[in-house]
Amino acid sequence: MPSLELEQLSLPQLVAQMVVVRASGHIFDQQIQYPAWEPPVDILNHWVKELGVGGVIFLGGSAAELVHRCQGLQSQAPVPLLLAADIEEGVGQRFSGGVEFPPPLALAEIAKTQPELAQNYATQMGACTAREALNIGLNWVLAPVVDVNNNPANPVINVRAFGETPAIVSQLASAFIQGARTYPVLTTAKHFPGHGDTATDSHLDLPVLPHDRNRLETLEWPPFRAAIAAGVDTIMSAHLLIPALDAILPATLSYQALTEELRLNLGFQGLIVTDALVMGAIANRYGANQAPVMAVKAGADILLMPVDPPGAIQAVVEAVEAGEISRQRIEASVTRIFAAKARIFSKPSDFGLDSLSQVEDWQLSEDILRASQIVSDQACSALEIGNGINCLIVDDWLHQDYLSRNAPAVKLPVEFGFRELELIDRHIRLEQFNQRAQQPTLVQVFSRGNPFRGLAGLSQQAQAKLQQLIASDNFAGIVIYGSPYVLDSIKPNLPEDIAYVFSYGHSLLAQNLAIETLFRHP
Would you state the torsion angle of the CA atoms of residues 192, 458, 394, 433, taken in this order, to the nearest 10 degrees? Predict the structure, then answer.
């Protein structure tokens, strides 16, 4: 990284270093999936080259495309860029070609009986994620989630957490950080002051938590303390209101939360980054350009995904010129940003696509999936006459990328006599489930808490289909992918002789392992 002095940068250039913008990982503008958030190439290039933004966060595309994108943007940037992605479950979670791991809660499942193995897996998962991130040009891993998911109805954290207790989250998240930090990438603990006990998705609206300070100190904050001790580089704020800390402003915009608690009380010296400022909890309540000013006043160093990046920069500049924010406050943030960049750019990276998706990394993903599976005592019987139904239940067929005609969940059941396909999502009319099932039916449910889903459990349609099958004599078996809380809700109603398998993953590998386990488990 070239040596830069703060005095060399104008005030707008300093503020621009605090802004990280969103972009598509795809190469061509025609491939952009979220045009409201992802600018076309010419605008993105202008933000990088002319405005001098500090970084870019990517979503979508292949590993090969991202290499091209990262190299092109870095070549234009006056100051090397932070290039980030939400890859909590490995590079393959966002970019095809990389390894995809099951969600972090799978490691908590393993830790129930084999804590040392789970911790070892977490370390390896962190190292693999960091290495593959570097392989495709990224240098900032927006992971791990250190929220304690103690609310099964949490629609946004859910299986993204490393567990349901502060102790296990602290151990596994710290192991992930230590593994990742063996490579020159930044890591991120999120979401402070703690997003684990919400029933509202902050992507859609502002959650309110009534917890007192003692509760925060004993349950929500121990994993953040552990992450700081493990050397985490950045901590991301949460868009939620905790009146015990600030009765008026959400944590992202609160001086009490970010400066008094995180910076002073917890002693965090790294970078404080906001969660995405385009999210509903902020964007729907505060001005597009006022929110960034408020976040800087609160203590944020990096403004992630402001609604209007040029407008956000200008608004913060005007706040400094008006005396609302001191120039020293801006310089303190940019000093921390330059220090972080110096660490990851201290020596050139010699990684590349030739070392992406190593056999041992895929084996690690498989090992975690196998060790975290939950399996009934019964095995599912294959049909002698292939007239069974393979019923696939998802939230929305138009918004999923883990099922196709060649996916194991579609193809493998055919080998066991389930040749007919039934597809159900939340758009199916409930009246269709009034009649009893007439053929042996295998059910596969894909469900997990996800941002923007707004639901942690089963849809009405899924519940209706399961009730129909339970009332019939044709329920052959069930595979549940994703949320263990869905398994918990279904199990009490399952007939005792029904075989089931639960897998934390949705991936093709997870499907293959689950189907084989269901039919071949002794």
Answer: -170
Q: Given this model, what pLDDT does residue 272 score?
A: 98
- Nearest-CA neighbor of 25 among 82, 88, 73? 73
Contact 297, 324 (CB under 8 A): yes
What is the pTM for the complete model shown?
A: 0.94
Instruction: Give the position of tokens 């609310």.
Output: 151
Sequence-distant (≥ 6) Cβ neighbours of residue 284 within 8 angstroms: 205
Any residues with CB less than 8 A from the CB of 229 and at least 6 apart, and which?
A: 174
Is 203 marked active-site? Answer: yes
At residue 446, the 3 state secondary structure works out as strand
Decide if 246 is catalytic. no
426 pLDDT above the threshold of 80: yes
Note the helical H segments in 213-308: 213-215, 222-229, 255, 280-283, 290-298
Q: Is 179 helix (H, G, I), strand (E, B) or coil?
A: helix
- Beta pairing partners, 82: 55
Measured CA distances, 230 to 39, 182, 429, 490 (Å)? 36, 12, 50, 38
For 442-501, the pLDDT digits (tens) are 999 998 865 545 555 688 888 888 888 888 888 999 999 999 999 999 999 898 889 999
Cα separation, 200 vs 156, in Å, equals 8
Q: Which residue among the candidates 203, 211, 239, 506 is catalytic per the annotation?
A: 203
pLDDT tens per residue across span 508-521: 999 999 999 999 86
Which tens digits make up the pLDDT trace of 162-182? 999 999 999 999 999 999 999
Of 86, 246, 275, 395, the active-site residue reads 275
Would you state the structure tokens that stand for residue 78, as one six-digit string? 């006056």
Which helix (H) or strand (E) is 359 found in, with range? helix 359-372
Is-contact 471 463, C-beta < 8 A?
no
Q: pLDDT, tens digit, for every residue of 308-328?
A: 999 999 999 999 999 999 999
141 backbone dihedrals φ, ψ, rounded to 5° = -95, 115
